[in-house]
Amino acid sequence: MTHSASSCLLFLSLLMRCVTDSSSLFLPDSKELLRLLSRYEQEADHSGVSSTAGNRTRRAILWSDREEILQLHNKLRGSVYPTASNMEYMVWDDELERSATHWAEECQWDHGPQDLLMSIGQNLAVHWGRYRSPAFHVQAWYDEVKDYTYPYPQECNPWCPDRCSGPMCTHYTQLVWATTSRVGCAVHVCPRMNVWGETWENAVYLVCNYSPKGNWIGEAPYQHGRPCSQCPPSFGGGCRDNLCYKDSQRSETEDMNEVEKPQVPLSPRTTSKPSPRPPRKPATKPSAPKTATPRTSSPKTPNNPYLAHNIKCETRLRDKCKGATCNRHNCPANCLNTKGKVWGTVSYDVQSSICRAAIHSGVIDNNGGLVDVTRTDKLPFFVRSTKNGVESLSKYKPGNSFTVVKVEEYNADCYTTVREICPYRRPSSHCPRIICPASCKTQPSYWSPVVGNNIYADSSSICKSAIHAGVIKADGGFVDVLPLERRKSYAGVLKNGIQSESQSNTDGGSFRMFAVKV
C-alpha cells in the first residue's frame, strides 16, 4: 500500500509540474520508445553521423522533421487572430540549427547557453515514451494562445500590458513574433536527463532557436491589420499565405549553398578593391587595435557625408562613381524635355540619363525627386518604348544595365532597426529615407541598443545610432541608411552622449548613417 501510494503521488507531482512548465510529458511505452530510438539511430547512421559519442546519442534533425517544423510555423503564423499586418515569412537557418544542436546535446532542461540568449529566442520541449513528432510540440507551443489576449494599440500607452491568463504564453508569442524570420531546431535523445528533479532515461529533447529574437517586454507580438498591409519595404509588396514574402526568399541551408557554388568565383571581384587595405592594418593593430578602426574610417565621413548625390538631367550612370555609396541620386525638376538619351525599358543601358530613365519608368515625374539605382547584369540588347513623355531608344548590342526605384520615406520610432525594414541583400539593398522622432537619445539601451561606431550592427536602433554618429541631434530629423554586409566585430565608444556596445561574431548585417541635406 505504501509503495502504491508513493507511486501515485509521484505521478501526480509530475503531472502538476507539466502544467507549470514548457515541456511535454508522456508516460513510457517500451515498444513505442524502442521504435523512436531506432528511428533516430537509423537516420544518424544513414547520414554518416556517429550514433554515440561518450555517453550521449548524437543525431542530426531529420529532413522530414525539419520541413514539418518550418511549414507548421508558417501555417500558424499566417492564421493568427486578430490578423497580423506585418507577419514575416519564416525560413530555416543552418546556424540556428547548429546552435540548437550544441545546446540539445548538453541535455540540460533549461534555456541556454546564456551568452547566446541575448541575441536569439528559444523554445524547448522534452518527452519520453511513445513517439511524438517535433511538430506536435510546435502545435503545443502555439496552443498557449488560448490563455493569451492580444493587446490592441489603444491599450499600449506606451507599453503593452501582459495579457497571459495561463501558466505560460511566451512560447506562443515567440512563435508568432512578426519580425522573427529565421528558425533552426534540433532533436537529441538524452540517455539520462534531469527534468524537474527527476531523472528521465532516453528523453527526447527538442530545441528551437529563433532570430531576430522576440518576446520583448511591453511590445505586442505583431501589428494588427489587413494581412501584408504593413510589410517592411524590403519585401517589395510580396505576400504569401498572409505573410510578408519575397519571391527570392529561400531557406539559408547548406544544400542551397551547394547549388550556388558556381557563383563563388565571382565574389572576389566585389572584394578586390578593398584588398589593398589589409596590409595597413597589421601595422596599427599591435599598438592600438581599437583606435585603428576609427582612424581608417573617419576620413570617409568628411569626403562623403551624404548618401544622396545631386545630379543634372543629362547625368549618365556611367559618369557617376561606382560603389554602394553612389546609388542614391537627387534629380532636378524639368528633365522631361532635356536632351539626355535613354536606352531600354524597365532595365536601362548605363549610358542612359539617370533622371530621364526614372521619368520613363514612372519612378518620378517632371518635378524631380530621389531615386535609387541598382546595377544589374549585362543584357544582350535594349528595347525602345515611349512612356510618361520620354521616348527611349533601342540598342542591339550587349551592355551593362540598371534599374531605378523611388525612395520612400519611413516614419521610424526609437526602436526601428535596419534588420526589420531593409536588411542587407546581395548585390545591393536600399533603405527608405528615415524620419527619426525626438527623445531617442534618452531611450534605454535594452530597448534601443547601439552596437558599433561609424559602422553599426543592423540590430541597432537606427535613430539612436544616428545621434551617436552625429548625423542628427536629439530632436530628430531625416537620415539616410546604407545596409552593408556582416562585420566580424564592432567596437563600442562613447560619442555624442551615447555609449555604444562592443560585440563580435554577431549574425545579421551592418549599416552606415548619412546626413540629409535640408
Task: Describe the model.
Its main location: secreted. It is found in: Secreted. Keywords: Disulfide bond, Repeat, Secreted, Signal. This protein is an alpha+beta fold and 518 residues long. The chain has 3 domains: 182 residues, CAP (Pathogenesis-related Protein p14a); 98 residues, Ferric Hydroxamate Uptake Protein, Chain A, domain 1 (Beta Complex); 107 residues, Ferric Hydroxamate Uptake Protein, Chain A, domain 1 (Beta Complex). It is 25% helix and 22% strand. The strands form 8 sheets. The protein has a 6-stranded mixed sheet. The protein has a 6-stranded mixed sheet with strand order 17-18-21-26-20-19, covered by helices on one side. A 4-stranded mixed sheet has the order 3-5-6-4. A hairpin with a 2-residue loop joins strand 5 and strand 6. The chain starts with a helix and ends with a strand. The N terminus is likely disordered.
Helix/strand-derived category reads: alpha+beta
- Text of the CATH class of the largest domain: Alpha Beta
The amount of beta strand, in percent, is 15-25%
- What CATH calls the topology of the largest domain is Pathogenesis-related Protein p14a
CATH architecture of the largest domain: 3-Layer(aba) Sandwich
Low-confidence stretches: 1-37, 39-59, 251-303
In the sheet with the most strands, the strands line up as: 9-10-13-16-12-11
Indicate the mean pLDDT.
79
Largest sheet: 6 strands, mixed
Inertia-based shape: elongated
How far do the termini sit from each other?
A: 86 Å
CATH superfamily of the largest domain: CAP
- Helical coverage, percent range: 25-40%
From the alpha carbons, calculate the radius of gyration and give it in angstroms.
27 Å
Tally the beta strands: 26
